[in-house]
Amino acid sequence: MKKSLIALATLGAVAGAANAQTSVTLYGVIDTGIEYVNRVASAPSALSPTNALSGVAPAGPRVAMNGNGGLSASRWGLRGVEDLGGGLKASFLLESQFTPDTGAFAGNTGIFNRQAYVALANEYGKIGFGKQYSSLAEGMLNFSPTRAAPAYEPGVWWLGVNYRPANTVKYTGTFGALSVAAHYSFGAGTALSSLSGGGILYGGGLGETPGAWKDNTAWGASATYLGENIGLGIGYDEWHPAVTVGNPGKVRKLAAAGSYTTGPWKFVAGYRWGDQTYANGNTGMRDDYWFGGVSYRFTPAFDVQLAYFYTNIKQLALTNTAASTNPANPQQVSLVADYAFSKRTDVYLTTAWAHNGSLANDGPFTGYLFNYASAPGQKNMVGVMAGIRHVF
To answer: Tell me, what is one Gene Ontology molecular-function annotation carried by this entry (predicted)?
Structure first.
């Protein structure tokens, strides 16, 4: 009997030690609200060069629940870590985005559509394998003027539709105030289909094509310094989307940004150079994207963010044989007021005005992800949303 008790006590101690070294956490965000958009059309169901820059009839005001989220994309996830000893840790992350107004997975994609990776880490950094944020996103999101609010910030325009590439090996390291990242994707993949007739150069395939290894591959790197008052970041991303097998195009983005914090004030500003080239070498789009913003925290619970976004589209060709055009340059002003009841629950009011384009620069180059297709010939668009966000 004594031996049995000793054995059970030893087994319990070992199990307790194992539990202390391993953890799995369920987390998430639910964010939705009521939105008014003054004049919005339907996104084209089948893109073509004749309607790609605007939506299709009918067009008019829209009042509805916003499934994309006002301050955050709604999501849930599982993350876990195991201490392997000697400073080495194994971890995983599975994250799924959904639309709270319907409960459906965002974009009708797979269950873990945001991130899904396994990683090893020690004091020198972490190496992850799977679907992860690009290095450009890793380096730039700290400088988002409205904290990457999905409702009206042109975040996908800024970072690219491939900002969470699949089939990715990624290194991240943090050394004091300095963070670095580098990644390579064997096939980034997007859910965005190309235009018919050789238009928009994105392909929907995941890459990793036999005999065409370069199709849909991507790579990039970034470095970020986040000091007590000053932040600086720089990042590069290159992606080779292939609409047809063996004919990859090239999408390149180079970005730099900075921030300054003093008391309740925070100022951010940044620039992103972009160049998109068809497989035949013709330019799809060449643009410069600028942004600036300021936020002020009136109380620990209440803060306001004001942002301005401007895009200089220097060249645009919707097909690989079309002549380049120089369309009117989109610009947008956004304002967010956020009040926190607690660390987990807040309410907000967000509004934006866009000129020469849709809210969030939504269109064919962002796959109409946010349903802000502008009516043909439209010059201005206004959106207002009041909502609630709960973090768990």
So the answer is: porin activity
For the chain, what's the residue count?
A: 392
pLDDT number for residue 9: 39
CATH class held by domain 31-391: mainly beta
DSSP 3-state assignment of 296? strand
The DSSP string of 94-117 is EEEEB-TTT-PBGGG--TT-SEEE
Mean of the per-residue pLDDT values of the chain? 89
Which pLDDT tens digit goes with each residue over 4-49?
433 333 334 334 444 448 999 999 999 999 999 999 998 876 555 4
Residues 6+ away with beta carbon under 8 Å from 119: 90, 91, 92, 93, 126, 127, 128, 129
pTM of the model: 0.91
Whether a cis peptide bond, with omega within 30° of 0, leads into 210 is: no
Closest residue by Cα to residue 96 from 80, 111, 79, 116: 111
Name the amino acid, one letter, at 248.
P
Write down the domain spans for the chain.
31-391
At residue 11, the pLDDT reads: 34
Can you list the positions of beta strands (E) in 123-229?
125-131, 168-175, 178-185, 218-226
The tens digit of pLDDT for each residue in 261-299 reads 999 999 999 999 999 999 999 999 999 999 999 999 999
Beta strands 75-85 and 22-42, pairing class: antiparallel
Q: Residue 374's closest CA among 37, 68, 36? A: 37
Half-sphere exposure of 282 (CA within 13 A, CB side): 16
Report the Cα–Cα distance between both ends of the chain, in Å, rounded. 46
Please give the pLDDT value at position 192: 64
Q: Which 3 state secondary structure label does DSSP give 53?
A: coil
What integer is the mean pLDDT of 188-205?
62
Bridge pairing between strands 168-175 and 218-226 = unpaired
Alpha helices in the chain (DSSP H): 2-21, 135-140, 155-159
| CB atoms inside a 10 Å sphere around CB 19 | 9
CA distance linking residue 357 with residue 380, whole number of Å:
7
Residue 110, pLDDT score: 79
